[in-house]
Amino acid sequence: MTLPDLGQASETISPLAGIDASAAQAVDDNVRQAAFRPKSRGRELAETVLPPLVLGSLVIAAWYFISYGVLTEARRFLLRPPHQVLQVGFLDWENFSEILLGLWSSARVATIGLSISIAIGFFLATLMSQAKVVERAVFPFMVALQAIPVLAIVPLISFWWGTGQRSRIVVCVIISLFPIIVNTLFGLQSAERGIHDLFTLHHANRLTRLRKLMFPAALPAIFAGLRISAGLSVIGAIVGDFFFGKGGVGIGQLLRRYANNLQGEELLAAVIMSSLLGVAVFLLFGWIQNRAVGRWHDTTGA
What we know:
3 domains; globular
């Protein structure tokens, strides 16, 4: 091909290239507009409600299949069908009121234990963030405390604190303390180095740096730890109540009694209510996080 032919070919190709670039730019603009277009309330509600409804329906269908398709009539007490659990465990007020009272007793224990864990966890995490020697001294013992099986130290707990409510609170603290310390410490240490240098340039003291820089930067991590520990505190209250039987009857004592008496409907109803308590506490701390942190911390990806 001669040089004029090349020139004519380039003149022929260049308009096509311009058209392709314009089309690509238009597609890119459409994609960006679709990404930032606000969703309708109906669509947002459907995307929020439909997935758990569909999954819950599948779980109930599997539950019925196991109760009637897998278990024989003689073994059906191991997993009663959902309608019998609803009728005996929830619609019978005598049984349901007993479960509610036990749940309220365990919720009080979980609240007290979580409050103590928050106070201890914030104090230790703050000290550990201010001095590396404190972090090196305390952190291994916190890991060891988290790794200790609660069942192994039940005799020690009952010997030191008895078999009442105090022992249940101690179990709550042991189970829920570690996530608060770890997440709070991580959050306090996550502030940007450049902002630390800016505070140093303005001769800010430790208290000012902690109050105006480190704690605001740590809020997302702190609330993540609180949401984890809130669920663990409910588990700790139930486990402590299961082992320590004196004092107010909690949901753990009811679970043990229903299991020993083969009361399958009441047992499953108590398990469901315990799970709902954990979900409620988790959602409560999520709501508090949204109110406290607001929209300045965006956790969604681009």
